[in-house]
Amino acid sequence: MSEERAAELFVNWLERRLTIAGRGDSDTILDVEPSGRFWLGRLVSETYVANLGLGDRGERLEPCATGIRVRPVGDGPWQFNVTVALVVWPWDRQSRNWHKSDPIRRAMRVTVRADRPTQVFGREELSAALARTAGGGNCLSAEVRVELEAHPAGGQEMAIMLVNTSAESDRTIKDTRLYECRLEISDPPTYPFILEALPDSFRYDRRVPAYGINCGTEIDANGTIATVDSIGVSRMRPRFWGSDEREPDLRFEILANDPVTPANELQNSLANWGRIWSDEELRRRADAGNWSEEMRAEAASEAQSFWDEHARIRAGTELLARDPQLQRAFKLMNRAMRRSARGRYDRWRAFQFAFLLANLRTIVEPEEESSIVDIVWFATGGGKTETYLGLLITAAIHDRLRGKISGVTAWSRFPLRMLSLQQMQRFADAIGAAEVVRRQEGIDGDPFSLGFLVGSGATPNSIKPDPKAGDPWDPDDEHMPARLKVLQRCPFCARDTIETAFNRLAWRVEHRCSNAQCDWPEPALPFYLVDDEVYRFLPTIVVGTLDKAATIGMQQAMRGLVGPPWGLCDQPGHGFVYAPRSEKPHGCLVPGCRGTRAELPMTAELFGPSFRLQDEL
């Protein structure tokens, strides 16, 4: 049994248990008042509701009727079967407990005339059965009440209800409520109710066969409509492949060797599925569903949006086939994603792969895509982060292949407090896997690296050699690096062997892996979390909070996140330099540096990120 099926069975079982507890189906004797124990399927006296003086609000607080509203076919009279079921809980003076009665179930054939707005059925039969249950008293009574009113679209609306017409209270049985109430109707030919036509209503079936009155409704295979106390709202499990055609093989290991064949299969299947959006098919659906003009216009607009999106996916597929450099980057990205996943998953979902294809042109022809802001949306756990990580890793590898040997490929921004350590770990795992692949392939350039740019509330803006008293980022405080541990496991070996230390020579906080078998050969992992370190080393991917972008006009070193820095410090490990200041005469951000500015390692035009992303919109 799959986990999904097991979860579904558990939820169904839990719902049944809650309904049984709320109705009292499995109880027979109580030492507390039933009204204080059961909240489903109970009806209070109609007189009680009227005496509350709250009108409809009182009926909603504790109903005196339950039933079904339908639209009957024809002008009447209408004949159909009605079945009601209920129990009562009379007080037993001798045992000083409440005892549930035997079930009362009555079926009746009713004829409803069209010229009478309110009609009553079964009053004598139900009241007699209740009187026998109450020991011969006449304090309990009920009836089936039918009410008619004109429907705005023509014809009639019919409400068939079980109503508690008992006395408000009784000294003998104490509780005059009816419990475990249920009403069924069968054989009435009906029209469905039609929900209001909003522009996007073309997506839905607007037909509603019946409405519940103070309850929900269910319809069995024979067309019998019954009241239910627990209203089930189905939220369908996502279908990651919605076509009848065979799903392309989107495993990482397949795409690392040949991504073009699966890409063509995907875009062809998408085009075939999209023919349900053809003009002829939309006209047929509009006529069958009585669409409004607004619905027709919205459907046509969405159909065009679909074909526009398909065109981008097809263009990405064609670009992947004809551009060897892009294809190589895409293949290596899939190798990296397979390593990063470490067996947790082994393939792309169709929507993820389609998103990647649609945005490949952004990597090689950014000027053609500059007017497009693309959004990947899916429910939590659907794979949004992995989707755009695949795109960023492709872009990073492509950058190295085209000669961008350093600098930022992507700057991803999160709202305040929405950037979790778990998300940072996923970024680190992906960038670590990409770096292993880069080294295996012998691709030139700086190591792929990750920057954490969130500011002084969580990480230092800078580490000063002479901090003020109380500064939490004192380089002489041996406990300071431990407070800056962000990674939970090594992105290269996946072991929980991360340590942090402050390297005074390089003037940076380092995450280190103590595993001797780790694939990373250097002491410090390529991970930067002090603002000044991010500016000095310009990591391949920068992840930070949105508020940092607002300070770009106040921090001159942030120019490295959007364009070229001023130069490179000639001292090993000092990184890029920016505009000189009195305390930084050569623009180096390492305190006390006496080096000089060297030329940039590549042309200025290659600096600046290829992507700017906003996560958790």
The count of DSSP E runs of length 2 or more, i.e. the number of strands, is: 26
Range of strand content: 15-25%
Rg over C-alpha atoms, rounded to the nearest angstrom? 35 Å
Distance between the termini: 36 Å
Could you state the oligomeric state of the chains shown? single chain
Class by alpha and beta content: alpha+beta
Give a quick account of the main beta sheet: strands, pairing sense, barrel closure. 6 strands, antiparallel
What level of helicity do the residues show? 25-40%
Please work out how many helical segments DSSP would assign: 17
What's the overall geometry?
A: elongated
Question: What average pLDDT do the residues reach?
Answer: 90
Residue windows where pLDDT falls under 50 for at least 5 positions:
none
